[in-house]
Amino acid sequence: MTDATALARALVDLWVGWGVEHVVLCPGSRSAPLAFASYDAAKAGRVLLHTRIDERTAGFLALGIAKTSGRPAVVFCTSGTAAANLHPAVLEAAHSGVPLVVVTADRPASLRGTGANQTTDQVGLYGDAAPCFDISGPVPVPRPLGGPLHLNVQFVEPLTPSGQAPQLEWPSPPVGAGQVPSEGVLSIGPRTVVVAGDDAGPPARILAQDAHWPLFAEPSSGSRTGNHPIRSYRLLLESELGQAIERVIVFGHPTLSRPVSALLSRPNLEVVSVRPRGRWTERPHPVVATYDQVSVAGRDESDWFSRWQALDRSVCAELDALTDEELGPHAVAREVSLSVPPGGLLYLGASNPIRDLDLMAYSPTPGQRRKVLANRGLAGIDGTLSSAIGAALTRRGRNLLLLGDVTFMHDLTGLVIGPHEERPDLTIVVVNDDGGSIFASLEQGSPQFAESFDRIFATPHGVDFSALCAALKVPHWRVTSREELRHALASPHGGIEVVEVVVRRDNRREVDEVIRELGKSHK
Ligand SMILES: Cc1ncc(C[n+]2csc(CCOP(=O)(O)OP(=O)(O)O)c2C)c(N)n1
Ligand SMILES: [Mg+2]
Questions:
Q1: CB atoms < 10 A from the CB of 16, how many?
Q2: What is the pTM (predicted TM-score) of this model?
Q3: How many Cβ atoms are within 10 Å of 362's Cβ, its own excluded?
Q4: Lesser CB count within 10 Å: N end or C end of the chain?
């Protein structure tokens, strides 16, 4: 079998050849050859190396890096349960089409099925979420483009560098024929809206602008700029105007609101899909056509868009007045959205924070664009701190993360960053309502289940964030007023810091109900 040191060095060369800049290392013995080879590559300035002890965190760190840098990022770990801890990040990468290279060290294949220490069946561990290459020597491996790649590497002892390791050549995979993207030309005619889900990108905005159609752009769509986004779209779908929609063009991966899912499933509605990135590119509802890209023949000269714009302005004015009364979660989202400068990064946690921001964020002009990201592939509350830290590692300038208290605690080891590691600038805004408030507005939150609600859904914890952050040596500020929040957001201290905003949870269901009514009253 191939010398472990030579194999590890050749793998690092392969990654560098793919354009990999960041490598995330999790310590272990079987993966030692990769650790030494990556360390040497980092010393030579060929890669940037990050070390994390928790593989789940490390996986999401690499995911955040790959999401923002547009290049594959590598994470590697030892054999056994370590490999299983990378699974959440692999699934998220698969569903959001992020080029994450997951490398698991293994023993030689001859030891499989024998009860050797720390040895399980790692080949194909992530199922069809990540194509797996079981490697014991150089074989052709394609560069990952959209989605994760699993390299399971069999290392034979010795696992430490000794003597002169032979130089290995990595064979190139055959180049496949590229597919020609399909293009649809849309007519002006039916009353049309453009829905831009996660990762829709600028084409959704450009189409809405060209055709003069309303744009329903989720915060992490990358399309929420210019004049066409309708901020309160979620509230307006049940209004008379919302009922008049005849056609929807869907981009990206919309996941945030039930009214949008309901819209897309309406009978007698024409849905045109622009194929999203990720593992499953089919829509969960019927579509009349699917294209890779679309353009429009003409411009809608009717009053369709101006009616949406007028209604949106009046509902947003009511919404702002309502949410201005106290420092609730919506006001926090508003303040955060206003404090991200052009070119800055805003990462969003799942659950209510991203939905509140969706309702409260204004749309900057395209030139003043901010990068807004979220893990919407599977919308987990795991790995959010790490993903945001990974994203921030690739960016200079202002970086913010807005997330809930439960989401924060789910990824606490994301804040365990050793003294040799690079720490990015990141202001973490935790909306602390002592539990998961999203369930309050769902069926489970109905008064008939009130008795068990806190115990089995909301899970209040009473955790002292200030003590938690002190233990992790992360600066922490607790704010209770809008002025304090503004001040904290306006004066970052550099490095990673936590701004905890304490808000109520007991009135969440009522507040959401009042907000929903704002749209309905404009029938
Ligand atoms: C890994 C994972 N586990 C569980 C869930 C289900 N879940 C969705 S939101 C949520 C609670 C989130 O609470 P918090 O972060 O405080 O946000 P809030 O709902 O209060 O806005 C949970 C447990 C999930 N999405 N992902
Ligand atoms: Mg919460």
A1: 15
A2: 0.97
A3: 11
A4: C
DSSP string, 386-427: HHHHHHHHT--S-EEEEEEHHHHHHTGGGG---TTS----EE
- How many helices and strands (H and E) does the chain possess? 18, 19
| pLDDT tens profile 423-453 | 999 999 999 999 999 999 999 999 999 999 9
Sign of the Cα pseudo-torsion (509, 515, 521, 522, in order): negative
d(CA 517, CA 176): 54
Ligand 2 centre to CA of 503 (Å) is: 9
Cα 235 to Cα 520: distance, rounded to the nearest angstrom: 7
- At 390-436, the pLDDT tens digits run 999 999 999 999 999 999 999 999 999 999 999 999 999 999 999 99
Structure tokens at 508: 């969440």
Cα–Cα dist 182/180, whole Å: 6
Two structure tokens written together for 300: 């809608």
Measured from the Cα of 435, ligand 1's closest atom is 16
Mutation probe of ligand 1 site: the residue of 351, 352, 405 with most atoms within 8 A of C-beta: 351
Q: Report the nearest atom of ligand 1 relative to the CA of 403.
A: 15
What residues have their beta carbon closer than 5 A to ion ligand 2? 404-405, 433, 437
